[in-house]
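Model it.
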Amino acid sequence: MHYGKVALTPFMLGSRLKVAAAALALAAPAASLSAPGWNPDQAVEIVVGTSAGSGSDTTGRWIQRWIREKKLVEVPANVLNKPGGGGTIAFTYLNQHPGNGHYLMVSSPSLLTNFITGRTTLKYSDAMPLAQLGAESVVFTVRAESPLKTAKDLAERLKVDPGSLSFSIGIAIGSHNHIATAEVAKALGADVRKLKVVAFSGSADGVMALLGGHIDVTASPVSGVLAHVKAGRLRMLAVSSEQRLTGDLAAVPTWMELGIPAVSANWRSVVGPRGISEQQVLYWDEVFGRLARLPEWKQELESKMVEPTYLNSRDTRRRMDAEHAQLTAVLSELGLAK
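Modeled.
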């Protein structure tokens, strides 16, 4: 059975994002750390707007590990979790350090959607994009003992009564996980405004609520649920990729296979505070370019089913500009734009 067609936003392009990123990266000139310019002279702070164990937190700790172990940065690097406000607390903290290239923040599409939904007065343009590092498809997961055995079971429940199930959707209303859930419901002809969604301080907190029986379904990155699935505590029903993933997710169907054209991916980017200099941007362009080429980094992404979608500062800005317009239209349609 096939359901109504859903228009895909740029950040919902799954593997197409990987192809576009590769093309842009090949076209971009490389900076050089040996050129005269800025170098950090104090510890680097990697700010994460979610709780420990979330997808953004994991990305931040990967960055910390590999720039330290491979000596990509000559000063210490620390991860600072600032959960709350759907990521706005961390963003506000970042911009309390304007022009300071020692402060970085791991970001997701919530950097764009929080302004669109009226959660904050800070726009994505109040940050300086430095790199996009990867993208994760959204997976829909239930407890092992859930009566929802398959993605078709979930689809039928949503069709009949979209308010009969509770969904964990990450850190904010209007987030990428929320949009992914709404796209599935919309394709089924359900009223997306009747969805029962709950935001937490991070996807890891939503998973814990699922394990405790407080939530029926979680829409989250694969990395947040994979260990629990392997332990037999959770069951993945469907993934929002264009094609089936490999490895541990080879048996998990895509929504596309079921005739439900809902495809979404959550990117992981790094931004700095507004006002940082061109020399600081060039420095981080070089660092993240080298990080993205590390075999160990690529293995880290692969182990968590994260697509390597590296973009430099300039091209990350271009992608954010394009996605902001698209997300504004999508969230307006869902009744979430302010």
